[in-house]
Amino acid sequence: MRGYRAGMTLSSTSAPALPAGGAQPFTDAEVAAVRAEFPILARTVRAGRPLVYLDSGATSQKPRAVLDAERAFYERHNAAVHRGAHQLAEEATDAYEAARAAVAAFVGAAADELVFTKNATEGLNLVAHAFSSATAYRRLGTAEADDRFVLRPGDEVVVTEMEHHANLVPWQELCRRTGATLRWLGVTDDGHLDLADLDRVLTPRTRVLAVTHVSNVLGTITPVAELAAAAHRVGALLVLDACQSVPHLPVHLPGLGVDLAAFSGHKMLGPSGVGLLWGRAEVLDAMPAFLTGGSMIETVRMEGSTYAPAPQKFEAGVPMAAQAVGLHAAVDHLSALGEGGTGMARVEAHERALVARLLAGLAELPWVRVLGPAGTAERGAVVSFVVEDVHAHDVGQVLDDDGIAVRVGHHCAWPLHRRFGVAATTRVSFGPYNTTGEVDAVLAGLHRVRAVFA
Amino acid sequence: MDLYAELILEHAKRPQGAGLREPFDAEVHHVNPTCGDEVTLRVDLDGDTVRDVSYDALGCSISRASASVLHGLVVGREVPTGLAVQAAMRTMLTSRGTDAGDEDVLGDGIALAGVSRYPARVKCALLPWMAFTDALGRSAASGTPSDVDYGGPTIR
Ligand SMILES: Cc1ncc(COP(=O)(O)O)c(C=O)c1O
Fold this sequence. Notes:
The complex is a heterodimer.
Chain A: H1 28-36, E1 44-45, E2 49-50, E3 52-53, H2 64-77, H3 87-106, E4 114-117, H4 120-140, E5 156-160, H5 169-178, E6 181-185, H6 198-201, E7 206-212, H7 224-233, E8 237-241, E9 260-264, E10 275-279, H8 281-286, E11 297-301, E12 304-307, H9 321-335, H10 343-363, E13 368-371, E14 382-387, H11 392-401, E15 404-405, E16 407-409, H12 414-419, E17 425-429, H13 436-453
Parallel strand pairs in A: 3-15, 5-6, 5-7, 7-8, 8-9
Antiparallel strand pairs in A: 1-2, 4-10, 9-10, 11-12, 13-14, 14-17, 16-17
Helix pairs in contact in A: 2-9, 3-9, 4-5, 10-13, 11-13
Chain B: H1 6-13, E1 26-32, E2 37-46, E3 49-58, H2 61-74, H3 79-93, H4 103-106, H5 119-140
Antiparallel strand pairs in B: 1-2, 2-3
Bound molecules: pyridoxal-5'-phosphate (PLP).
Pyridoxal-5'-phosphate (PLP) is lined by residues 119-121, 164, 166-167, 212, 216, 241, 243-244, 264, 412 of chain A.
């Protein structure tokens, strides 16, 4: 097992000072070696500026190993996975299933508990649709439905005010399809979930609590174990958005106490077009299929069909085999960034050091307001801020002119921005390849922003 | 950087005609969903003349400057002239750097020409202009929603 730190998900009162086993940030030489594996980092942008890529929260860059793995798959093994019995079909299927096993091991899970999806958004929609399908089956009496997924009048779906739209809108839609009521946990001024609200919001009517592991805006690491226990006490399922945790921290999904978790391959050095939904086997078994068609069936007759067990049940159609193979290379690459496969502990330590340096630098600028927790202990690899009297678009544009790529806008978390009374923020987010020099570049860039607009 | 011409920064810092005023014939609210920029804009017509355009623009320097430029270009003009200026502005902004704009038509607005090279920012500059044509359409139909399709952002 890789370096899983049991205390990682504890509530805000725990203060982990150092990551697992005292893992250290990458040295300058190490980070140079990491960077050398990412061809895109060598290019220049705008007027010949070296690229400073600080938008890994949106999508990460890809190491050569990932690009090579995809190419090798197409050059040597390409065939439709799980279809046909010729040699290439066998090899492609093996490569695809090996990828599932590798990604599963990366998050401490069993391979048959991991479903390949297009991205996290699809995984979260898959789960939301499981509820509405089960509800419809029950109401119409057309199929068996597990009680946990059946929404009755008056039932409630709970989310939080810090969710990415991907973990909010599908639940709003679920409520529209079923008549269930959407409720949410608020966010405190310092960027934590308002747990004082927990007992008021979670009730025996709650069927599901959908929450992010790490906020893609505030960086806040949420107390997942505590939330899962609270959800289970009222008989609700906990669905975790792990998009911003799995790429940046050692995460052991089954150890978190959650029922289902979604994340995206493209944010963890993998290709676009592949994501994952993890679920406890027994929960996946209880869930109705989402997309239907080829590859997910057991038997098909004109009158009706039966479906394969999970994960196949949720993988209709020819899957994204090359992307899965690329993601296999990505998780291998991440694990290998530390001795004995402890890469993620190094990544966490490295990114935490970058966050600390950035927060310290921003604290020196009285005209910058940082959103989210003040300390680094409860933060993932993102920092969002507002520059007084300058719109985020303008901040981003001036930084872009220096070759610095940051995200500006509401980062698909509009209600959260409304909660903090801002239309848009500037977000710096890190990957394993970022350097302290890049943090300094962004700080220097902000002085230029002030000079242009003040 | 050709985006932030002095004139644009000047308009953004000291926008002309900012604020919402009475009376008005129509009010619209447009949003740029990619970044959350918002503009509330009112038109006040006197027959076929644009007597006033008042607005509250919550957004980046480009969208605020664009609203200020719009105010300067259309207030006191005939509606068809206002629409022609809008069309010229739209053509310039969506030209990907190939249309520098006609100063006789666009006045200070040609300072926004640089925006057309930054596809992500074109919407910012267009926002008040789309709101303007929408408001004209609504006022013509005496306050009921316009059936004129300007291809602008949807109203929320
Ligand atoms: C916290 C969070 N949830 C969900 C998503 C959606 O991921 P994707 O667009 O890859 O489905 C993202 C990233 O955009 C995210 O940061």
